[in-house]
Write a structure and sequence with these properties.
By secondary structure, the chain is of the alpha/beta class. About 35% of the residues lie in helices and about 20% in strands. It folds into two domains: about 5-250, Thiolase/Chalcone synthase (Peroxisomal Thiolase, Chain A, domain 1), CATH 3.40.47.10; about 260-410, Thiolase/Chalcone synthase (Peroxisomal Thiolase, Chain A, domain 1), CATH 3.40.47.10. The chain has helices at about 20-30, 60-65, 70-85, 110-120, 135, 140-150, 165-180, 195-205, 245-250, 275-290, 305-320, 330-335, 340-350, 355, and strands at about 5-15, 35-40, 45-50, 100-105, 160, 185-190, 235-240, 255-265, 295-300, 325-330, 360, 385, 390-395, 400-410. The strands form three sheets. The chain has a ten-stranded mixed sheet, with helices on both faces. A two-stranded antiparallel sheet has the order 2-3. The longest helix is centred in the first third of the chain and has 17 residues, at about 70-85.
Length: about 400
């Protein structure tokens, strides 16, 4: 059997509703600071959302921002931040061998809704339809905008995986490095979801959109009174490298991707299946060559929907029920559901646990739903567990797609 090259994370570029760099995000996670706030969008009206406040002009000109997309802007910000954080000089690399692989849930809805609204103001005269519409809405747009911004020539496309997409991007980037197709991979996930009224309307019609008098308490996974999803935007792209290359240039290493799995439930458009999620988790552990009790932290996907949280906890209990040292937490309780960016953002917030041995909590957990009870669920206050060596990051999406990655602390 051929031994594949080891792949490590050497840079993190992130924007989320509670921070635009990993240090700020981590500080707010440990302090219990939510990024959810009141929001109003055309046609739908008043609601709640997780909103990012990164500076789009940090890496783009005003003309480029106007021409591009919000998802593209998120990707450009995250990509540049990851390059900077990794200390990589792209001019020293072959431009053909740098890959861009963001996962996305949706793309193009925002731009299409905006164009339809714009022409409606001119009696639907299509002369007022933007000639930028097609490049804005193609599925590879966020990746393509990064290529243009960083002046690269390598493979650049998006991984469509519903709300599992952030893990998909990470997995695919690692695979391309292992295959020798690229020498650097910028991979993870991005989302512009809050800018389309259709996603709010759809969740509302399902009865799956969160409501609460206090916006910061609306996203409440596992709580008995949880009532739905808070839609959010954001993203995180990682600089991935082969271990040998990272060590050669003396890079700081956040962690090593040692296992992963993607599968499908094959049962329903929306409702998750614990059996499929269970198989995905076990597949990721088998890929990593570890047993359940060798995981220290399980980063859950839980979106704060009544049925979704129960299904996931059922799967987690079946895999880790007898494991004393496995801790469980959730990040959506702080920022809502960043869709295609969710998995990548949530992993990033947990990576500092490798250094400090502290697990950030699930907040807004006032009364645990008995059906969501799981061993070592860290609730409301951060917990110092001594050491975190292995993280399982889970993410699941509509049409039954499931993903999981296993990241291990790197010890030279």
């Amino acid at each position: 059997m051929v031994e594949l090259p080891r792949v490590v994370i050497t840079g993190v570029g992130i924007t989320s509703p509670n921070g635009n760099d990993l240090g700020t995000v981590r500080k707010n996670l440990l302090a219990g600071v939510s990024g959810v706030q009141p929001y109003e969008i055309r046609y739908f009206g008043k609601t709640l959302a997780g909103i990012c406040d990164f500076d789009p002009l940090r890496y783009q000109k005003k003309k480029e921002v106007r021409r591009g997309t919000r998802a593209g802007g998120v990707a450009i910000y995250c990509a540049n931040e990851a390059v900077r954080d990794a200390g990589v000089d792209l001019s020293r690399y072959d431009k053909q061998r740098v890959g861009i692989y963001p996962g996305v849930t949706e793309h193009g809805n925002v731009e299409t809704e905006n164009e339809v609204y714009n022409v409606s103001q001119y009696d639907y005269d299509l002369r007022f339809w933007s000639h930028h519409h097609n490049p804005r809405t193609v599925a590879n747009n966020p990746a393509g905008e990064v290529v243009l911004n960083l002046d690269l020539r390598g493979p650049a496309y998006c991984l469509g995986g519903a709300c599992a997409a952030g893990n998909l991007g990470l997995i695919h980037g690692a695979q391309m490095l292992q295959l020798g197709e690229v020498d650097l991979a910028l991979a993870g996930g991005v989302s512009e979801a809050i800018h389309t009224f259709g996603i709010f309307a759809s969740f509302a019609s399902q009865g799956a959109l969160a409501k609460h008098d206090d916006p910061t308490r609306a996203s409440r996974p596992f709580d008995k009174d949880r009532n739905g999803i808070v839609v959010s935007e954001g993203g995180c792209l990682y600089m991935l490298e082969r271990l040998e290359d990272a060590e050669k240039r003396g890079a700081r290493i956040y962690g090593e991707l040692i296992g992963h799995r993607i599968n499908s439930d094959g049962t329903d458009f929306v409702l998750p299946d614990p059996a499929g999620q269970n198989a995905c988790i076990r597949g990721a552990l088998a890929s990593a060559g570890i047993e359940p009790d060798e995981v220290d932290l399980v980063s859950t996907h839980a979106t704060s929907t009544p049925s979704g949280d129960v299904a996931e906890v059922t799967a987690v209990r079946e895999v880790f029920g007898d494991c004393e040292g496995v801790y469980v937490n959730n990040t959506k309780s702080y920022i809502g559901h960043a869709m295609g960016g969710a998995a990548a953002i949530e992993l990033a917030g947990n990576l500092p646990s490798f250094d400090d041995g502290v697990v950030h909590p699930t907040i807004n957990l006032d009364q645990l739903d008995p059906e969501c009870e799981v061993r070592n669920l860290v609730a409301n206050e951060a917990r110092d567990v001594g050491a975190v060596r292995t993280i399982l990051n889970m993410s699941f999406g509509m049409l039954g797609i499931n993903s999981a990655v296993v990241i291990r602390r790197f010890d030279p």
